[in-house]
Amino acid sequence: MAVSAKPGFTDKVRAHLELLDPVTWISVFPCLAGGVMASGAMKGTLHDYLLLFAIFLMFGPLGTGFSQSVNDCFDLELDRINEPTRPIPSGRLSEKEGLWNSIIALLLAMGLGIFMGVHIGGYRGWVIVSSIFAALLVAYLYSAPPFKLKKNILTSAPAVGFSYGFVSFISANALFGDIRPEAIWLASLNFFMAVALIILNDFKSAEGDKDGGLKSLTVMIGAKKTFLVSFIIIDLVFSVLAYLSYSWGFMIPAFFVLIGLVLNLVLQVQLLRDPKGGISFLQGAVDDGFGNAIGKSDIQEHNTFLRFQVANNILFLLNNLLVAGMVGLKYITVQ
Length: 335
Prior knowledge:
Layout (H helix, E strand, L loop, with lengths): L8 H11 L9 H11 L6 H29 L1 H7 L12 H26 L1 H22 L9 H24 L4 H21 L4 H7 L4 H5 L1 H25 L3 H23 L9 H12 L5 H35 L1
Helix pairs in contact: 2-7, 2-8, 2-14, 3-5, 3-6, 3-7, 4-9, 5-6, 6-7, 7-8, 8-11, 8-14, 11-12, 11-14, 12-14, 13-14
Main location: membrane
Protein name: Bacteriochlorophyll/chlorophyll synthetase
Organism: Pelodictyon phaeoclathratiforme (strain DSM 5477 / BU-1)
């Protein structure tokens, strides 16, 4: 009987990187970019670009990477069902190696957070340190027993929204300037958008969640109603963003946000009519374009969500950054 070759050094490095799930790192960048733009205080210097890279490294590869790694460590049995090709269930990494992966990512994220907090100083430094520490704690509680926030959608979705959407936006705003009231509003909208999307992302693990007793919304109410709940949250986010833009005096951004809302509604109606095959014309964007960034899936409802995610993410990203940029410009003008 043939004996499989022992994984080499390069194979181990690839497996460790895969455990940190690089696809998810980019998810925090729109919030970081929005926070920076809303501050209106970043300068085009090497120092400020290094700070921007450092906060992305802290929340992306290290912070988000830790959340993915520690999740795999605690969810080995579920992953044997849902994602058997992941590094640990596939045997490319041992459980001990996976644990060390998460510990190193955790310590590096904490160390970088402390360094940046000291470097920035004052209450803004404390905001950055407390934000990354809180995000790391929530990431641990999300997966680790007995807390396991992911067991119930009422705790799992807010946990993701807090870590990916809210604190990353606020931290980036604090990186270059005082935290603006508008930034708190925008960070809150990013929180709710992340909540809506994580609800739909649970489609990919519905079978394993049901077997494992996890109460995802899909398991509790089915795919079609899950789409509806998520769409209501998304549409409210766009509506509030349009209202805020108007109330802040940003008429043109408010108009574009409303266009984004209308386009989303058109797509949502099609998905509610056909949760498994709706908006199939966007499948090419998933297969050939954005698939490497948002992932791919063989589960019909999750694949439908990925198609919708391409359109929704573009619409929200453009409008979110446009409004954040206007906020920053407002404070540049005041200064």
